[in-house]
Amino acid sequence: MTAQPAAALSDTARALCLLFILLTPCAAAGLTLINAGLGRSRNAAHSMLSALCVLSVSTLVYFLAGFAWQGFAGQPAYALNAGGRMWNWIGAGRFLLLGVGWDGSAASLAVLLGMFSAGLTAIIPLGSGADRWRLSAACASSALLSGWTYPLFAHWAWGGGWLAQLAANSGLGVGFLDSGGAGAIQAVGGLTALSITWVLGPRRGKFTSEGMPSALPGHNAVFVLLGCLLAWLGWLGLDCAGAMLFTGADAGRGALIAVNATLAAASSALIAAGITRSRFGKTDASLTANGWVGGLVASSAGCAVIRPAGAVLIGLVAGALVIYSVEWLELHFSIDDPGGAISVHALSGLWGLLSVGVLARLPQSTEGQWLAQLVGVATLLGFVLPLTYGLNWLLNRFYAQRVAPEGERQGLDLYELGAGAYPEFMSHNEDLWQR
Known about the structure:
Helix content: 55-70%
Distance between the termini: 59 Å
Radius of gyration: 21 Å
Strand content: under 5%
Number of helices: 15
CATH topology: Ammonium transporter fold
Strand order of the largest sheet: 1-2
Largest sheet: 2 strands, antiparallel
Order of helices and strands: HHHEEHHHHHHHHHHHH
Oligomer: single chain
Shape: globular
C-alpha cells in the first residue's frame, strides 16, 4: 500500500471550503428540476421522487463503501508496481467511514463533498432514462454507480490515484487535472446515462418505422429554466470546494473560479440560443438551458487554472457541441436522451478535460499536460464506459430496468406511484391510447 501527501488547509480555508460544499446540493436540485421539466407531464412526480430516492441510495452506499474506495490523498491505498513505479489504483480505507477524523480536516471535508458528488453523479442518468426507467431499477443502478464506478475514477483523479500520479511517475505536467469534477462527476454520470439509453432503448413513439426521430417535448420549461439558476449556484460551490481540496487552490482563487464558471455558462447559453434561432427561426428554451449547463460542466475541469477569456472560449465550444450532438445522436445512433445528459454531461465534460491541456495557466511546467488530460479522457471512454455499461447490462439481465409497456402508456406517476403530479389537469394525450 502507498499514500500520497495530503493537502493542508488553514482554518479560514476550511471554513470557506465547508461553505462552498454546502452550496453543492443546489446543483442536484437544479438537475432534478431540469430532468422533470424535460420529461412528460404524466411522469413528473416519478422523476422528482426518483431523484430523491437515488440521492438516498447513493448517500448510504457511499457511506458503506464508496469513500473507502475513493479515499483521499495521504490515506492508505493499494498500489501496483509497473515499470519500476508504484501506481496507486484504489483506496484502502475502512468501510462505514470508520477511521475518519471529524475534526474539520481536509479528509473529513472530502467525505462530505464526495457524498454530495456521488448523489449528483447518480442524478445525471435519470434524465436519459426519463419516462421509462423503473424507480427500483434506477435505485439499484445508482447503488452500483455510487458504490463502485464513481469512487474508482474519483480515486484515480482526486484520491492520489494513478491519474494524479502522471506528473511524478511520467513527467506529464501536473498530472491529470479535474478541479471541479468535469470527469469524476459529469463525464462518469454522462457515460452512465449513455449506457442507460442503450439498455432501456428509446421511448415508445420516439422513432418512426423508418428510424426518423419524432419530437416529444418536455412539459414544463419553467422547471427547466429555474433548474438552470439553481445549478449555477451549486456549481459555484462544487468548483470552489473541489479546487481547494483536490488541486490545492487557495481560497483567494474563489472569485476567479466563480467568474470562469459564470462566463462559460453565459457564453454557452448564448451560442446555443443563437444557433437554435438561426436554424429554427425561434430560440429553443430547452436547448438553450442545456447549453447553459453544458458550459458549467465544461468549465469545471480547469476552473481554477484558466483565464476568463479561456472560459468564454470553453463555453462557446460547449454550447455548439451540445446543440449539434443532440441532433447527431438521435439521427445517426437512434439514441433517445430526453434530458440531453449525454451531450450536456458526457461530451461537455470530456471537452472541458481536453481544454485544460491547451488553456491551463499553471505555475509549474505544463509540458505534457495535454497528454495527461488525454490519458484521463481515454480512461473514461475505454474503461469507465464499458464498466458502467457492463454493470447495467448485467443488472438488466437479472432485474428488468424498463417499465412494462402498460406503465409507459399509462404514465409512471399512476403506474408506479398511484397518483399523478397534476391531478386537476389532463396529463395524458392521445398517444396513451395508441397501440
